[in-house]
Amino acid sequence: xxxxxxxxxxTIPFLINLAENNNREWxxxxxxxxxxxxxxxxxxxxxxMGPELEKISPHFRAIPKKVGGSLMRVYRxxxxxxxxxxxxxxxxxxxxxxxxxxxxxxxxxxxxxxGNCFIGAGIWRPESKALTKLRDFIVDNPTSxxxxxxxxxxxxxxxLEGDSLKRAPRGxxxxxxxxxxxxxxxxxxxxxxxxxxxGKKGFCKYVAKRFAQxxxxxxxxxxxxEVQY
Length: 229
Fold this sequence. Notes:
single chain, 229 residues, alpha+beta, BirA Bifunctional Protein, domain 2, 41% helix
């Protein structure tokens, strides 16, 4: 696998063209460009991120495989969607916890899309048991939660995002001082960045630095779910 320096200049243009021609005929005709502009550099990036992740935590995995690794599939699951476009128009890369069988576990994420590039950290749509654990942990450890989300490097770059309940979750007081956090269905934080960053030679270091800035947040989630960080 070639050494990663940066994503090529045609990565974003290819994703834009894919968005404008989201059909199987166009994709099959342009498959070689998908390989050179998207899949090959993404796999090289994942491999290069292995040592960087190790510095943050030994429990997250960078797996540079075409299928079943850190690179998410380009094919959309359209079975239950009204949107029948067959392809994702972004690059999604997830660095999962060693115990996470899917995205429903604490992890790091990179999203590359024209005009919508961001770095993510946290846990998206945890199952009911894990969600209750997170909420209970916040109730029992409110000070360390506030410290984690107010950590200056984290707060400077990340915003907590995701869906929330409209009402207090069952079993939790409506007037709890952290009720807005207890309502969360997702515990994810995102840091947006300019598209041009992916073409810079220091992109790996840039992403690793952002991941490290989420350290207290990810550490808190892992502790709440009783997994190593």
